[in-house]
């Protein structure tokens, strides 16, 4: 994906349309990270739209156009954290129907879809922070160092949490596959 | 479903997950309300701050007191670094240690020469793109700026080209300090900046010491003191409270080590408190003067630790909670048997989520235990309170 550096420069100067255009180039990734982290579309839409406004307000602080996407991811991460903090008592609902949109009739599920459901169910059993780490790593391809910077945590913390999360997933998927 | 075996490498796990997950992922559309056009009206009326002009930022009157102070600080830093590099035995020993083929074959080997160059290029690119260490200003502190993954792999970009041009100098500098990697920012305040770095095991002066914390004067950048951490493999959290610095780290082997240093005499920090806790690190927090540390252990906990059972749990792990008063160094510890490693920690409360017996009221068998942290007191509340 190529992000138009010229448009980011225009956005820094206050051009709202240019900002909206560069935002749109990464909006699907932002939305999906929020969706997998928070587990439902309503909260994900909330945090992405908040991120959009927050980023526009702070776009002048972005010094390097090449880091536009991770910078946006960092704002999104902070918004997600605030949303998770609002849950307080562990509201951790992972709306699997919102992800598997093409479920066939019951009793006629292909092996491929069955595998997808198993993975999504396993993700649903992780906590939001673990899901964010895994999403940034597996789907977005960020390194531990990058994820630490995005999530504002020490790299060692992210590294150990990622290790534990993979171990949990492995255990869950092993049990499901037996 | 394909077998998901323990023996698979983590990268294979990532590939496996990516394969399955991306199939789901590509079918998720962006909601109409989140397109750029749909959100554009929400920017109406928002004031756009004036962009920070680099020309203005970097062209103050040359002889103003501010620029004078900056130049003085830079000069002190250069002199300090020069004196460190020129300091007899250590530097020469390190250089000798590194240029030996056994010590650093990747530097000398023709076939692998590009590897450190790429690393250095990456480091340089990161430093170049965000010299201040953070992009987001008032957001959470970020130790480094991050590049787009796809951009990192594109050698043709302007940044990478520039970084590659700088790479040999960086490689040489790394060799001169024994291959130690760059420091990671822990935190900074008006007085001190705290960073840590992992030590190269080929460094004869740091052999057996995995990590070193550097404390620098924020205003000058001059190193005030180094704290070696021989007991820790990785730092997982840290807290600055008054004149103390507490570092929590994964202990070599197993468990978590928490060390508190008194920084009253910055030239000679004193280790005033050490705490070792069984289990893997889950979370920690500092609230007022009390640190809370949470670990998860599958095995029995430290002798003398009070163990409380979570009602109806079918899990067999333990969550160990410690609180340390940094004013008095009083330690309290309790373990909760039947806990999972899923914990949410807040200032005064923590919530342990665990699986338990399924009932008509709780069909999924998911329970949450409420732990109240009142100062150093750790209290298990059977029923979580309603949110105020």
Describe the structure.
- The complex is a heterodimer of chains A (178) and B (388).
- Chain A has 178 residues and is mostly helical.
- Chain A contains eight helices and no strands.
- Chain A has helices at 5-12, 16-38, 41-58, 68-87, 111-124, 128-139, 144-151, 155-177.
- Chain A is globular.
- In chain A, 49% of the residues are buried.
- Chain B has helices at 10-25, 36-39, 54-58, 65-85, 88-99, 105-108, 114-129, 149-152, 158-176; strands at 184-188, 192-198, 211-217, 223-229, 232-241, 244-251, 256-262, 270-277, 280-287, 290-297, 306-309, 317-325, 331-339, 342-345, 349-355, 366-374, 377-381.
- In chain B, the strands form four sheets. Chain B has a five-stranded mixed sheet, with no helix packed on it. A four-stranded antiparallel sheet of chain B has the order 1-2-3-4, with no helix packed on it.
- The radius of gyration of chain B is 26 Å and the shape is globular.
- Mean pLDDT of chain B is 69; it is low at 1-8, 54-60, 88-179 and 384-388.
- Chains A and B meet through helix 2, helix 3, helix 4, helix 5 and helix 6 of A and helix 1, helix 2, helix 8 and strand 5 of B.
SSE order and pairing:
The complex is a heterodimer of chains A (about 180) and B (about 400).
Chain A: H1 5-12, H2 16-38, H3 41-58, H4 68-87, H5 111-124, H6 128-139, H7 144-151, H8 155-177
Chain B: H1 10-25, H2 36-39, H3 54-58, H4 65-85, H5 88-99, H6 105-108, H7 114-129, H8 149-152, H9 158-176, E1 184-188, E2 192-198, E3 211-217, E4 223-229, E5 232-241, E6 244-251, E7 256-262, E8 270-277, E9 280-287, E10 290-297, E11 306-309, E12 317-325, E13 331-339, E14 342-345, E15 349-355, E16 366-374, E17 377-381
Parallel strand pairs in B: 11-13
Antiparallel strand pairs in B: 1-2, 2-3, 3-4, 5-6, 6-7, 7-8, 9-10, 10-12, 12-13, 14-15, 15-16, 16-17
Helix pairs in contact in B: 7-9
